[in-house]
Amino acid sequence: MEASATPASDAPITFYRLQACPYCERVARLLNEYDLEYRSRFVEPMHSRRDVVKRVAGVRTVPVVVDENTGVTMAESANIVDYLESTYGDGADAAATGGDD
Question: Cβ contacts of residue 73 below 8 Å, gap of 6+?
Fold first, then answer.
């Protein structure tokens, strides 16, 4: 199965993002690189109207990722990238094998 943003409501990861946001695109590239199935939710451009993100993550900034696989909800692109790398990327492989590549 090819990783992509999916309209299916059963995708384990929900990705809250904004059109043309470079921080959001950084997270999207990594989700695709790791072949993770996710659902994109585009938020209101006006910061004060991002109530759905505020309810989910306690902030109105994007990107935000909600990972039902692990129960993690996270904001801030640098934190999300670190999380994805350690959970699904090379960091996860090293942890699984016990190696310090």
Answer: 56, 57, 64, 65, 66, 67
In this structure, the number of other CB atoms found within 10 A of the CB of residue 37 comes to 16
Q: Which residue type, as a one-letter code, is found at position 53?
A: V
pTM above 0.90, yes or no: no
Band of residue 49 on the pLDDT scale cut at 50, 70, 90: very high
* Angstrom distance (rounded) from CA 88 to CA 93: 8
Residue ranges of E strands in the chain = 13-17, 38-42, 64-67, 72-75
Neighbour-count burial of 8, counting CB atoms closer than 10 A to its CB (0-12 exposed, 13-18 middle, 19+ buried): exposed
DSSP H helical ranges for 4-50: 22-33
Of 80, 79, 21, 15, the closest CA to residue 47 belongs to 21
Q: What are 61's two structure tokens?
A: 């900034």
Query: What count of other Cβ atoms lies within 10 Å of the Cβ of residue 32?
Result: 14
